[in-house]
Design goal:
Elements (H helix, E strand, L loop, with lengths): L3 H7 L3 E2 L10 E2 L1 H20 L3 E2 L5 E3 H7 L1 H4 L8 E3 L2 E5 L4 H9 L10 E10 L15 E11 L1 H22 L5 E6 L10 H16 L10 E5 L8 E7 L5 E10 L1 H5 L4 E2 L5 E2 L2 E6 L4 H12 L12 E5 L5 H13 L4 E3 L7 H7 L5 E5 L1 H6 L1 E6 L6 E4 H14 L9
Parallel strand pairs: 3-7, 9-10, 16-17, 16-18
Antiparallel strand pairs: 1-2, 4-6, 5-6, 7-8, 8-15, 9-11, 11-12, 12-15, 13-14, 18-19, 19-20
Length: 411
């Protein structure tokens, strides 16, 4: 069983410092590579699915969150307001109010819908010290968020497409969903009091779940009261860590509340104003939680495309170091991440062990250096033998491009 906190420090991926504060991790270079690669993967997948990306500020006036309902229903999880002259500003706890304003800033016709806007943005939640833990529960969250503004008739298909996008991402990342949950409101004043909107949104999400999955045959799910967002029900995609702890990674929500609060509209084919539906969705949730789960799921042995170092080049002696650096230069030119681990780093055996989580190792001795070869060792223990450097780089590039799990497929 792997603990991402221990692995993260051992592999120099991330750490914390008391002067920065609890729940505020920083990312070291190798961790930043994993995070950046994951972020770019999500952006690429979103672009292919018709999303357009935006940036919005991590601060907003208190008035913004009063309109959205966060101030009334979510204030205990928000950081206190900061006084700026006669105004008060707040670190945002969510991106959706900002995206509602972005939508509202321009007029929209029905022909533009669905309008899908996405952002990998920062948000802040005032978590108590006792619940903080590594990357899974932090105060500074970087959320893979998106909001789709659409007609009522488009809402089910957009939410269904969001679930399919989540499933494809999980397949590429090697993540398994443990179950799907339809999160409904519970007792108390945490939730917006509008039964009509709750009923409409819940009915649509049930339709989404009942018509998703393989061949549209539906997804098994469980309903859970008390787990909804304050403004509406949601589909939660649950994951389970090696210790058996369950958490939510991805979500899909249908929201009628915020379009009303922000008076959003589009011009219909009849020339009149109509209210859009707002579909919230997150493919991998927070980057922090996603990396924590991937670390524990793979034990630090990331898939080739996500690994901080994809190829370790190990010259046996100093005489082969220049050839090793040449191999690295060729690998980098192919867009690969490669490093030399030379004799100065220890014996060959010690260097092989140090690079045990790197997918590919290329050992270069006199014979390999003279013939333009590399003796290949794989992370899984196999030794395919000496191959031309060009062939090795081609194989690694192919595995990185197709995000395949197999390191050395049979020819």
């Amino acid at each position: 069983m792997h603990d991402h906190r221990k692995l993260g420090r051992e592999l120099d991926l991330f750490d914390t410092d008391p002067l920065m504060g609890a729940g505020l991790p920083y990312w070291l270079p190798d961790g930043a590579i994993v995070r950046h690669t994951l972020e770019e993967y999500v952006r690429e997948a979103e672009r292919a699915a018709g999303y357009r990306h935006v940036y919005s500020p991590v601060l907003g006036k208190r008035d913004l969150y009063e309109i959205s309902g966060h101030w009334d229903h979510y204030r205990e999880d928000m950081f206190p307001p900061m006084d700026l002259g006669a105004e008060q500003v707040v670190l945002r706890p969510s991106l959706c109010p900002h995206h509602a304003l972005i939508y509202r800033s321009r007029s929209h016709s029905y022909s533009e819908l669905p309008l899908r806007i996405a952002e990998l943005g920062g948000m802040y939640r005032a978590e108590l010290s006792g619940v903080l833990g590594g990357l899974t529960r932090v105060r500074a969250i970087h959320l893979n968020d998106a909001h789709i503004f659409c007609t009522l008739e488009q809402a089910v298909e957009e939410a269904r497409a969001a679930l399919a996008l989540i499933a494809r991402a999980y397949a590429d990342l090697g993540i398994r969903a443990s179950r799907y949950r339809l999160s409904l409101p519970g007792e108390g004043g945490k939730y917006v009091a509008d039964p009509r909107l709750w009923r409409r949104a819940t009915a649509l999400l049930r339709e989404v779940l009942d018509s998703s999955g393989i061949d549209g045959s539906g997804i098994d799910y469980e309903a859970a009261e008390g787990e909804a967002a304050f403004y509406g029900p949601k589909i939660d995609v649950q994951i389970t860590d090696p210790a058996g702890r369950e958490s939510t990674l991805s979500t899909v929500q249908i929201d009628f509340h915020q379009p009303e609060r922000f008076d959003l509209h589009y011009i219909g084919p009849d020339g009149a104003k109509h209210r859009p539906v707002m579909v919230h969705r997150s493919v991998i949730g927070s980057v922090e939680r996603a990396v924590a789960h991937l670390l524990e799921e793979h034990g630090g042995a990331f898939p080739t495309w996500l690994a901080p170092v994809q190829l370790a080049v190990l010259p046996i002696a100093q005489a082969q170091e220049e050839r090793a650096h040449e191999v690295v230069r060729r690998a980098v030119a192919r867009g690969l991440r490669a490093e030399v681990s030379g004799p100065g780093d220890g014996t060959l055996g010690a260097r092989v062990r140090a690079a045990r989580l790197v997918p590919y190792q290329a050992v270069i001795g006199d014979r390999e250096a003279d013939a333009g070869l590399a003796a290949v060792r794989l992370r899984d223990g196999r030794r395919p033998g000496a191959v031309p450097v060009a062939e090795l780089l081609e194989r690694i590039a192919a595995r990185a491009a197709d995000r395949g799990a197999e390191l050395w497929p049979a020819a």
